[in-house]
Design a protein that fits this description.
Length: about 475
């Protein structure tokens, strides 16, 4: 979380430090991707998938475990050195190390690695899809800001035109050269145009707010955006829905993700089936122990001593001399006990699954259902993609046609207004006729601005599906 907030702060400073250059569409997308929670969470899911893949690969390595055990026994217990009963305090220690290596388990592990690898690749595509979705939303919000700016500029221009007429008519009205109604009609129109400016300013700030919230940066009223180049407003779009769809099938992240999920589900079935086969493993261990009462007898010397037995020779008794060896008892050192008690073991184990309550077979059935669901999802994703492209293409064609028609309409109304303004200034028409021509031009210009940015948005959507650069 600390890193996340630092990123926001740095992005904000970078944004307003470069306010003179304005925020470009590319910069907006980069800031949004850096700060968006959905994208960051998708990145975490991808990292988790990478860890799962790494772990499944490391299962092929042998494990190694060590055990150390120290303690004391009181009262009657087993001497760990002699395995005999003793009745005294005994200190003991056991040390062991063991290792096991999986040799064969029906290729369950190998298929699990493949399934996890495909899952990891799918999560990377899903991360890219999250970025792409956010990119489209940012482009939409960005275009809405630009559209709102042009609408505001257009309404300000209208106020300038109306203000000049009010000033001219005010002079004429005071001199009695015109009907007072013409003057007051124009003043009413000026108020209407000023209200439009107020509304359009609010719309612009709302559009900016929507954009910065997508970017996860603080709102600032001085935010400025770089304009879209004029060449992006060319209504002639190349490409057909079929061509775009074929390209999207190869490049679209969401399609690649569901395809990889299906392949992963297939490998998962094979992995589970592998658990029905015998498992062969190789193991080994090393063990030793220590006892505080362990002793060893050491020879000192031998003596000859008369015993209680005797022999009679010629009626005379002679004692029997017995040779006796003398030993001394010494504790065995800790190091000697560890080396003397050391023993090793190697084993090969074979586990044959005979009956497991149907658990593995039911897991296989469940995995097959998951595969079927993945296949349905893959097919549905492709179908929806094709439908979305067809719908986007139709929308683009309609937007292009509308844009062209409105260009012609604006040209016609501009000429109509120019003529009406000349005639109104000459007193040949009333203010009503003048205002009708002015409002017709005003509406046409507003519709043209809306259609222009609607076309650009439709174009960007098709570029997104077709894998073309978005800026």
């Amino acid at each position: 979380m600390k890193s996340f907030f630092l990123n926001i702060v740095f992005a904000t400073f970078a944004l307003f430090a470069s306010a003179q250059q304005r925020l470009t569409l590319k910069q907006a997308v980069e800031i949004g991707i850096k700060n968006n929670i959905d994208v960051l969470q998708s990145d975490l899911l991808m990292q988790k998938a990478g860890i799962n893949l790494k772990q499944s690969k490391e299962y092929r390595l042998p494990d190694l475990n060590a055990s150390l055990n120290h303690g004391k026994n009181f009262g009657r217990s087993i001497d760990p050195f002699t395995n005999g009963y003793i009745d005294q305090k005994v200190g003991y220690a056991n040390y062991s190390a063991s290792s096991n290596l999986l040799l064969f388990n029906g290729f369950a592990l190998q298929n699990q690695i493949k399934a996890n690898k495909l899952g990891y690749e799918a999560s990377k595509e899903e991360l890219q899809q999250a970025k792409d979705n956010l990119t489209i939303n940012i482009i939409l919000a960005y275009l809405q800001v630009l559209s709102a700016e042009e609408v505001l500029k257009q309404s300000q221009d209208q106020v300038t035109v109306t203000q000049k007429q009010v000033e001219r008519l005010d002079i004429l009205n005071k001199s009695g050269a015109i009907l007072p109604a013409d003057f007051f009609d124009m003043k009413g129109q000026l108020a209407t145009d000023q209200v439009a400016i107020s509304d359009n300013k609010a719309n612009l700030e709302t559009a900016k707010l929507n954009l910065v919230q997508l970017l996860n940066i603080p709102y600032h009223k001085d935010l400025e955006l770089e304009k879209i180049p004029a060449e992006n407003f060319n209504p002639d779009y190349s490409g057909t829905p079929d061509e775009i769809y074929k390209t999207a099938l190869q490049q679209f992240a969401q399609v690649q993700a569901v395809k990889l999920r299906t392949q992963s589900a297939e490998k998962n079935i094979r992995s589970i089936k592998g658990q029905l086969f015998p498992t062969l493993s190789l193991g080994g261990s090393v063990n030793t122990n220590y006892s505080s009462v362990a002793t060893r007898e050491y020879f000192v010397n031998s003596t000859e001593n008369p015993s209680s037995n005797y022999v009679t020779v010629s009626g005379t008794q002679y004692p029997v001399i017995v040779k006796q060896d003398i030993y001394t008892s010494k504790k065995i050192s800790f190091g000697n006990q560890l080396s003397n008690n050391l023993f090793e073991a190697v084993n090969v184990g074979l586990t044959i699954p005979l009956f497991n309550n149907g658990r593995i077979r039911n897991q296989v059935k469940m995995a097959k259902l998951e595969l079927k669901n993945s296949q349905y999802l893959e097919q549905n994703t492709k179908t929806q993609l094709q439908q979305s492209i067809e719908r986007a293409y139709v929308n683009l064609t309609s937007a292009a046609d509308k844009y062209k028609l409105l260009q012609d309409q604006v040209s016609a109304f501009a000429e109509s207004f120019r003529t009406a303004e000349i005639r109104f200034n000459a007193g040949a028409i009333t203010s009503v006729d003048y205002l009708i021509a002015k409002n017709n031009l005003n509406r046409a210009q507003y519709n043209l601005i809306t259609a222009k940015y609607d076309f650009v948005l439709r174009e960007k959507v098709l570029d997104y599906y077709g894998g073309k650069p978005l800026w």
